[in-house]
Amino acid sequence: MSDRLRLWLERDRRGAGYHLRDAANGEAVSWDDPRIRVIAVAGVSFRPEAVADASFDPGERLALVVEPENEHDPNAIGIWNEERTLQAGYVPRDTAPDLDGTELAVSLWRFGEEGLRVLLVPAGSWVGRPRR
User: Fold this and answer.
1) Which of 3, 57, 107, 118 makes a 20 to 30 Å CA pair with 10?
2) Domain with 87 in it
């Protein structure tokens, strides 16, 4: 049996985002599950036009970009759309040192016009995209 994390995205009834379900056993996965991280993207208030773009809609894959030369924080990790043309913000400062930038990132939930929650799972994990 594989230890690879496999998750399904399950659409919220209100359409604001997704809940998580373990593909191996069908059980719901809470946001505080130790196998995953769900983060509030830092700095989205500086980029509301970017965050409003469809490339950050819940269910979309995102890119993590490490910024070791960042003058404010050498542990900074930017959160970009999958094509790396728009930046939503950053992994929170207290979380970034625990990551290496190889994690899989998926937009999970949108809060109003400026809030964005992102799912981070280990590299090699599988996250099933929702059906459109």
Assistant:
1) 3
2) 33-123
